[in-house]
Amino acid sequence: MVKGIKICGVSDLETLNYIVNHQFPPKFVGFISNYKKSKRYVEYEKLKKLVNIKKKETSFVAVLVDPDNKILEQIKELSFDFYQLYDVSPEKTKIIKEKYNIKVITALTISSQKDVDIYKEYDEVSDLILFDGKGYEKSIGFNHELLNSIPNSINKMIAGNIKIEDIPKFKNKDYYIDLSGSLENEKGIKDLKKINKLLNLATKNET
User: Fold this and answer.
1) Domain count, the chain
2) Taken in order 138, 139, 142, 147, is the CA torsion positive or negative?
3) I want to staple 103 with a disulfide (CB 3.0 to 4.6 A). Which of 84, 98, 127, 145 is the partner?
4) E-strand spans in 52-197?
5) The domain containing residue 89 runs over which residues?
């Protein structure tokens, strides 16, 4: 079963309002909060306005790559439900989780079984484990069969070059699905028609 959808890389108010007010809103919306190499990066002042809207049923996620204390202190009062952490050790993850009283999505970038198995180091300090491709700002996929060894007890999400039409393939998997690039037009802007198609299709494949 598909547990739910995360739409990542939202950076404008029109798209965000459309998503949270959709008939079938996603479980999560992600905002690139400190990774300036990404075309989806959102400056702090804009970020503050975005996450200040009524989110309704959707959880807001700050996507953070190796965050320093400055950005963590800057966003601590914003209306985030989760921090999605890349390149953060288990020890630092625990500190961030406890200090800021925030739920944590640990993001692991995958190209081999060895990369997948790192989840064991984060299981106790994470609310969700995200298995992503190695691309960071680029959408790069990986072999999802590598995840078959993970027990069902692990709360997991997958990302990495996933297309809208891939959703039915995950119907019998207990994953959250994270999409970003496949929801954009040729100019790299989120396409509301594609988002609508995704949310309607995902609802049919949730249980």
Assistant:
1) 1
2) positive
3) 127
4) 59-65, 82-86, 103-109, 128-132, 156-158, 175-179
5) 2-205
